[in-house]
Design goal:
Blueprint lengths: L7 E5 L4 H11 L6 E5 L5 E5 L7 E5 L6 H16 L4 E6 L18 H12 L3 E5 L14 E4 L2 H10 L5 E5 L5 H11 L2 E11 L2 E8 L6 E9 L3 H12 L4 E9 L5 H7 L4 E4 L12 E3 L3 H12 L11
Parallel strand pairs: 1-4, 4-5, 5-6, 6-7, 8-9, 8-11, 11-12, 12-13, 13-14
Antiparallel strand pairs: 2-3, 9-10
Helix pairs in contact: 1-8, 2-3
């Protein structure tokens, strides 16, 4: 090992342990040992059971609600900092709370910015994440951010399906740039859904911009929460003459009645990554692991090599 390359050590937050094990294995390492002491009131204290002094520490944990997931990562960052790690990289496959990235009305927080500051204060010297809800969130950090794209693993899978008469679709106007990027790579047409919300997670109206008759449609989005938008879009496209509808979503949040909606919808397949573990089985969900991509990027970071080849879109 070169003298200027620190030893890499991997630790997992409890919510991402399965993915972290895959990342460490792909890297050629093992997860470090953590003992968590839990108090009767719900407070907990993580303890690294090995030295990290002078090491590059990779802390792997998505920050989807509940807030305990974020708090655990913050405590582990503080632990690594106070244990004299040379570099502390927060590997956040899914950056939770990112939908609050601006003030869309009076007297509301900008949670994505707040959490960026919390992560830096806790000790993160670098952030590695995937498919932020808004790419501009990178600007909330004063530390380097490596923003990976799910397309790096989705595009090869999509090509392997050899789908004829392919059309890429965005479930809303905000995702149109992502849809156009996929369409350019797949040399296909693009359609856009225009939706109006009654309130958060409730759609009052949806309209389709473009023609899907006789097409096999693939919707692309960064995340799927209640699956209301995806299933409404899929049903609408089948009504408008689409032969089939699939969806690609990097982060399977899948809360509330999402699984039931998916099963009852016209959606043929939902392709996701393992940034968030699935809470139950669903016959329509296909999981494509992001572990190898993260492992390759983390190795490049530790060896001071470029990672630009990993950015497809």
């Amino acid at each position: 090992m070169s003298s200027n390359i620190a030893e890499a050590k991997f630790f997992a937050c409890s919510q991402s342990k399965e993915l972290a094990e895959k990342i460490a294995t792909s890297y050629g390492a093992t997860l470090g040992n953590i003992i968590t002491t839990r108090y009767s009131d719900g407070e907990y204290q993580p303890s690294f059971e090995e030295t990290v002094r002078g090491s590059r520490v990779f802390l792997i944990g998505s920050t989807q609600p509940s807030a305990d997931n974020l708090m655990e990562l913050l405590l582990m960052l503080d632990t690594a900092k106070r244990a004299s790690a040379k570099h502390v990289t927060a590997v956040i496959p899914y950056y939770g709370w990112a939908r609050q990235d601006r003030k869309d009305k009076s007297r509301v927080p900008i949670a994505a910015k707040l959490i960026a500051k919390m992560l830096e204060t806790a000790g993160a010297t670098r952030i590695v994440t995937m498919d932020l809800h808004a790419p501009q969130i990178q600007g909330f950090f004063e530390r380097p951010v490596d923003h990976l794209f799910g397309s790096t693993i989705f595009l090869p899978y999509l090509r392997s399906l050899n789908i004829p008469d392919l059309t890429i679709a965005s479930p809303d106007m905000g995702g149109s740039k992502r849809a156009y990027s996929y369409a350019k790579k797949m040399e296909s047409d693009v359609v856009i859904c225009y939706k109006q919300r009654e309130k958060a997670n409730v759609i009052s109206h949806m309209e389709l911009i473009g023609n899907v008759e006789g097409k096999n449609v693939v919707l692309v989005d960064d995340m799927v929460d209640t699956a209301g938008t995806l299933t409404t879009a899929a049903n609408l496209m089948i009504e408008r003459g689409a032969k089939s509808v699939r969806a690609i979503c990097t982060h399977p949040v899948l809360s509330g009645t999402a699984y039931k909606r998916l099963e009852e919808s016209k959606l043929e397949e939902l392709i996701v990554t393992d940034t968030i573990p699935l809470s139950q089985e669903c016959s329509k969900i296909t999981v494509v692991s992001c572990a190898e991509l993260f492992a390759e990027v983390l190795k490049s970071i530790n060896e001071y090599r470029s990672i630009s080849s990993k950015f497809i879109i």
